[in-house]
Amino acid sequence: MHMPPEAASSNILEPRDAASIVWQRLNPGQWPLRLEVLPDGTALVGGAVRDALLDRLPSCPDLDLVVTGKALALTQQLAASLGGTAVVLDERRDIGRLVLRGWTIDIARQEGQSLLEDLRRRDYRLNAMALPLHPGGELVDPTGGLRDLREGRLVAVSEDNLKDDPLRLLRGLRLMAEMRLALDPQTQIWIRCHRNLLGQSAPERILAELERLVRAPHADGVLPLLEELELLTTWSDPAGQQRPIPGINESEGMTPDERDRALPLSRLMHMLGDLGLEQLRASRQLRQRCRTLRRWVRDLPADPETLDETSRYRLHCELEQDLPALILHLSSSQRMTWMQRWRDPDDPLFHPVAAVDGLTLQRELGIKPGPAVGLLLQHLKRERAFLRIGNRASSLKEAQRWCESHSDLL
């Protein structure tokens, strides 16, 4: 098994206590809709039930409901009567989303003839639990999800269930990264056996799972398993990365915000190639950020201080806000020095900026708008980055000298 569970798993509720305490933690009185507006047979399923058992519910948890009737019609009806927004998630499977006062409530038609049958069609046993929303509803746990939570393990309900929606193959590893779970050996065999089915899932859904995974607190322990199971071979970088994926240890000394900026981007860049990101329909901005970081990680010398001036300046211009992701790849002594400089917004090399703007240059030097102004600004940024000029006065003096030697551009 991978990733032994933490001792906290022993704090999971006993079955006899589960329902009453879960009701208390869910606090449905704070939900944006009253239980009375929901039809008989409605049940809360999945993540909210699991997270209530773990006592890790956010203030506005996402709610997943199953109903015995038409789910999309109910979603639209509730949106109209409560002033929310209805979104069609899956017309064929009759799944809708109600967005109401900052809450997200997904409503799906029950699969099969009963709630028990619906739960037995779900992905992992710890997600196959439900709480019927009638007064005093007891926890429904037909597959042993509560026991899995207590023992800190991830077990698929069945092999066929994973194949029915191949995204579940990846979702299991994302859950492991979020909750530190040990992977059941048989489940691991199924995931590896059917890894090639993952490409049948919508690209956006795959990327969404990966973006959650790389931000999860236990991602370091899951990434090697992700590679071992070859789940991302289709989208990985064929050339690979010579440097290992940095993790929590390499981010020591960073603030939580700095770590959240650096680690997810670095992990995605290592896991997915440029073509893979495009195939998964990543935004143009994310693709560019990964491409730039990948190039600098690949070309970075062992001692980055040996970079020539042109390369060093270009590095800071191209990365700047994403520089912490590159800093993760430096030696421990270099990381601290570079982070301290990056934290200083006035450091002229780590945050290149000219001491004057384009309008000032045009006004003070009498030059016309055009490409030459941009070239001049770049020159002033570089000169200031290496401390050859500093304040406004020295910048204008250098700008005047530049204009005189580049009169053909003006």
Overview of the structural elements:
The model is unreliable at 1-10 (pLDDT under 50). Helix 1 (15-26) crosses helix 2, helix 7 (167-179) runs parallel beside helix 9 (203-215) and helix 7 runs antiparallel to helix 10 (219-228). A six-stranded mixed beta sheet has the order 3-4-5-2-1-6. The chain is of the alpha/beta class. The protein has helices at residues 15-26, 47-53, 71-82, 115-119, 145-151, 159-164, 167-179, 185-193, 203-215, 219-228, 256-271, 274-279, 284-299, 309-319, 323-327, 332-342, 358-365, 371-385, 392-405, and strands at residues 43-45, 63-67, 85-90, 95-100, 103-109, 130-132, 153-154, 182-183. The protein has three domains: 7-152, Beta Polymerase, domain 2, CATH 3.30.460.10; 236-342; 358-409, no CATH class.
Summarize the structure.
The protein is α/β, with parallel strands linked by helices and 410 residues long. 48% of the residues lie in helices and 8% in strands.
Low-confidence runs: 1-10
Query: Any idea of the CATH topology of the largest domain?
Result: Beta Polymerase, domain 2
Helix-and-strand structural type: alpha/beta
Please indicate the percent range of residues in DSSP E strands (runs of 2 or more). Answer: 5-15%
List keywords for this structure.
alpha/beta, 8 strands, six-stranded mixed beta sheet, single chain, 410 residues, Beta Polymerase, domain 2
